[in-house]
Design brief:
Layout (H helix, E strand, L loop, with lengths): L1 E6 L4 E8 L3 E9 L1 H5 L6 H23 L6 E9 L3 H18 L3 E5 H7 L12 E6 L4 E8 L2 E7 L5 H11 L7 H9 L23 H13 L4 H30 L3 E5 L6 H14 L2 E3 L11 H13 L24
Parallel strand pairs: 1-4, 4-5, 6-9, 9-10
Antiparallel strand pairs: 1-2, 2-3, 6-7, 7-8
Helix pairs in contact: 2-3, 4-10, 5-6, 5-7, 5-8, 6-8, 7-8, 8-9
The chain binds adenosine-5'-triphosphate, magnesium ion and fe (iii) ion.
Fe (iii) ion (FE) binds next to helix 4.
Protein name: tRNA N6-adenosine threonylcarbamoyltransferase
Pfam families: TsaD
GO biological process, one term: tRNA threonylcarbamoyladenosine modification
């Protein structure tokens, strides 16, 4: 069966076609980053309007790339939540309208389930159960994943998400919006050890995180320094060293506590090269396997939604065209067969 996936939860319009036997056939993405940059953050109303403009052209483009037509589509998956209500409504209503017109079922997908399952699109996917480090722009959590929809939260951030910490720190260092990738590029040119920043909650004994204090520590440090290019690089390096160390230590602790030896890294911060290199080096030494999505599927995309939709439809065939959006939605509340 061919599943059309539509992602519109925030500032990326993603569309993809995943075939349950043939795998991912095509995908396309439009990022609204340039449009929101002058405001320094996502403007919800502008995001919704742009999704309206993009979804159908991207769908046509994706069908063409895959060599398929609308009539080949057997089901439609869209992001039901969490995210911006208006942006979600665009994807939901277009999915419902297309589903009604094509007489195919429509299924709402949890955006974080999409992120979490994205590594399963790779050639050697991890088997269940595994531990997932889900580090995105709005979330940072460690989950025990026993199967599709069987998600248990082991720990989570008490304040900022890891991606949010990257973005806010980049902003205060004058690296623009959204600054995560820019900050990590500067960190790669930084001298390790010139500055030392705290590792928040590293010894807390649980699997929770806290990143807002780290951002404040960067602010204090930046005020004490003359911010020449090399100093910015060195502060970026100190920040990245701190965040990567906390994420790796807690991931290892989660593997230890759950007795599992497979770690999946998902979400936008999973694109961070230093994090990937550190986890890969540790996995060889400590005898666990680590799995990542390919870089373009770490951040938001339609492929992860089409894939999650295909997995869900295998469990419980979707029916009908009624649609819903859930701007706030806890991943651990998902049920394995709830559609
Ligand atoms: P959520 O999925 O929680 O709703 P989101 O969809 O905005 O949030 P993602 O698209 O998964 O988040 O990821 C975007 C985040 O990833 C941004 O905060 C961005 O700065 C961060 N990010 C992307 N690339 C990198 C990188 N190389 N290093 C660090 N952070 C990065
Ligand atoms: Mg985004
Ligand atoms: Fe996301």
């Amino acid at each position: 069966m061919l599943v059309l996936g539509i992602e519109t939860s925030c500032d990326e319009t993603g569309v993809a076609l995943y075939h349950t036997e043939r795998g991912l056939l095509a995908h396309a993405l439009h990022s609204q980053v340039a449009m929101h940059a002058e405001y320094g953050g996502v403007v919800p109303e502008l995001a919704s309007r742009d999704h309206i403009r993009r979804v159908l052209p991207l769908t046509r483009q994706t069908l063409q790339q895959a060599g398929c037509t609308l009539d080949d589509i057997g089901a439609i998956a869209y992001t039901e939540g969490p995210g911006l209500a208006g942006a979600l409504l665009v994807g939901a209503s277009i999915a419902a309208a297309l589903g009604f017109a094509l007489k195919v079922p429509v299924i709402g997908i949890h955006h974080l389930e999409g992120h979490l399952l994205a590594p399963l699109l790779e050639p050697n996917p991890p088997a269940f159960p595994f531990v997932a480090l889900l580090v995105s722009g709005g979330h940072s959590q460690l989950m025990k994943v026993s199967g599709i929809g069987a998600y248990e939260t082991l720990g989570e951030t008490l304040d900022d998400a890891a991606g949010e910490a990257f973005d806010k720190t980049a902003k205060l260092l004058g690296l623009g919006y959204p600054g995560g990738p820019a900050l990590s590029m500067r960190a790669e040119q930084g001298v390790p050890g010139r500055f030392k920043l705290p590792r928040p909650m590293i010894n807390s004994g649980d699997l929770n995180f806290s990143f807002s204090g780290l951002k404040t520590a960067v602010l204090t440090l930046a005020r004490q320094q003359t911010l020449d290019d090399q100093t910015v690089n060195d502060i970026a390096r100190a920040f990245q060293d701190a965040i990567v160390e906390v994420l790796t230590v807690k991931s290892l602790a989660a593997l230890g506590q759950s007795g599992l030896d497979r770690l999946v890294v998902a979400g936008g911060v999973g694109a961070n090269r230093q994090l990937r290199e550190k986890l890969s080096a540790l996995s060889a030494r400590r005898g666990f396997e680590v799995y990542y999505p390919k870089l373009e599927f770490c951040t938001d995309n339609g492929a992860m939604i089409a894939f999650a939709g295909a997995m869900r439809i295998k469990l419980t065939p979707a029916k009908g065209w009624k649609f819903n959006v859930r701007p706030r939605w806890d991943l651990a509340q998902l049920e394995s067969t709830a559609i």
